[in-house]
C-alpha cells in the first residue's frame, strides 16, 4: 500500500489489480466503492483510465494525477502507480500493449479527449457481451486512434506531501464549502499567510485560491453528472447564490453547468 495512504489503512478497501492481460488491446469496466485503493503495480501495458462518474486519483512517484469526466489519465507502459478513490467511482481502463504505444505520450498526464471517446466508452460499457466480436475489436482500435490525437496536460489538481499543506488540502477536499481566508487556514496550522502562500507556489505551482477553484470545478462536475440541481451544488460548494457558482464554472470550463451537463448527459 502506498505510504501516503498507510495512515488511513483501517478505512481503505484494497482493490485487486488487472495483472492477467492476454490481449494487445483490452478494456475493463469497474465500479469502485468510496475510500478504496489500488496497490502500487505496473506492467507492459499502457493504461487510459476514464471515470464515468466520480473522480479518480492516480499516484506516480508522489505526484497525483487527478481528473474528472470527461477526460482521462494516461499511464505509459511499465510505469509503477497506485490509485485512490475518495468517493465511489465508475470507470473504464483501456489497456494498450507497449508494442502499440509508439505514437502515445511517454509521460503520464491527462489526455484531453474528444466527445467521440466518451461515446465509444459508453457504447462498449453498454455491450459487455461483445468482447470477442470483430466490432468490439474495431472500436478499441478507433479508441486508440483517438487517444493518439489527444493533447496531454499535467495534473489538474496537484497534491503535496508537505505536512501542513497536506493537512490543509485534505481538509478542503472534505469541506469544499469552507471559504476561510488564506490567513485563517495558515493560522490553524501554525503558519503565516506568507509562508503558506510560498509553500503553495513551491509545492503546487499555483496559488491556494487557484487550487480551491479547481477543486470546486472537479466537485461540481461529479455532482452535475449525478443529476444534482445547480442551486444545490452552489450551496454545497460554499456559494451564496447560483449565479456566483455559474460564473466561476463558466470561467474555468468555458461553458455553463447546464451546458456541461447536456454535453455529458450520456455519462
Features:
267 residues, alpha+beta, Jelly Rolls, Arc Repressor Mutant, subunit A, 2 domains, five-stranded mixed β-sheet, 9 helices, 11 strands, 39% helix, 22% strand, globular, disordered N terminus
**Secondary-structure element sequence?**
EEEEEEEEEEHHEHHHHHHH
Question: Are there runs of 5+ residues with pLDDT below 50, and where?
Answer: 1-10
In CATH, the homologous superfamily of the largest domain goes by the name Regulatory protein AraC
Lateral arrangement of strands in the main beta sheet: 2-9-4-7-10-11
> What fold name goes in the CATH topology slot of the largest domain?
Jelly Rolls
Strand content: 15-25%
Distance, first to last CA = 31 Å
Largest sheet: 6 strands, antiparallel
Sum up the overall morphology in one term: globular
Secondary structure tally, helices: 9
Rg, please? 19 Å
Overall number of domains: 2
The CATH C-level name of the largest domain is: Mainly Beta
